[in-house]
Amino acid sequence: MATSSGSPAPEKETFTKMAKGDVEAIGAHCQMAYCHQLDFLPFRCESCKGTFCLDHRTETAHACKNEGAWARARREAELKKSSSTPPMRSSLLTPQPCASSSCKEKINTPLKEGIHCSTCRRYYCVKHRLPEDHDCKNLIPLGTRPKTTVDAQREKALGAFSKFKEWNRKISISTATKAKDMEKLVPKSKATVSAANARNALMDLKKNAKGEASIPQDKRVYLLVEASADTTKAKHPSGKFFYNKEWSVGRVLDAASKALQVENVNNRGGGEEAKLRVFHVEGGRLLDFSEKIGTPCVTGNTVVLLRGVGPPAPDLIEV
């Protein structure tokens, strides 16, 4: 089509021209050294903050200089969140019976939540939630180590020894009282009174002690023998006896138990709970059956017959 001036009319364009730089504004070049491909949907690496194409988007593909930083930061954030947020109670409850042996009611259900006892560490229904309702004091807490036979024997031994510590204390008080009374009657020094008391007690022990007449005088050891109340049937569970220094503790035990009417089942077998043992008060320990009585004991000492206190344990308790 020609114009009035005779020059041809310009043709109408059917496309839109883009200004210089608009292509780069749409996408981005891959930062990989030998790639630099223009990608209209580039990927951002959260570890090194670089921009890459589809082929080099992974940390391994572009040899990331800060590999794993994004994963570590995410893991630390999750751990911090979990430590600051209290644990949620699971919505999935596992029904179980009440821990009381006499109860069959189901707990830990949507309608009946179990009540935890912090003492015995068990779960109970509402009816048995109180300690006195489920006999809490006689239950071993869950997760604790039950007492072994050795523990039970040790506790029994300590209990027996505590009785004789009290017995020793009363004897000491009685002796001290007698010494004070004598001191009032006869004005003597305390050392003289104490020595006199010791001599009188020793003379009384030797005078009234019983034993085998065939034992030579120079071989005799004079002892005061006591028996705990739970071991003897005699009205007076004590006595003064003399034994041969060369005798074993086991032989002395046999003679003493017979004299004090104490049942002795040591030779019948069985456990330690039925056996008799000899406790040396001055030495503060149980004597072994095989040792000679004259080794630990001297004239004037006291030994006690105990039952169920276990084998000898030196230095178990100080008397």
Automatic annotation (TrEMBL):
Entry protein name: AN1-type domain-containing protein
Domain AN1-type, residue spans: 24-72
Keyword annotations: Metal-binding, Zinc, Zinc-finger
Domain of life: Eukaryota
Biased composition (Polar residues): 82-102
GO terms assigned for molecular function: zinc ion binding
A Pfam family: zf-AN1
Region feature (Disordered): 78-103
A single cellular component GO annotation: cytoplasm
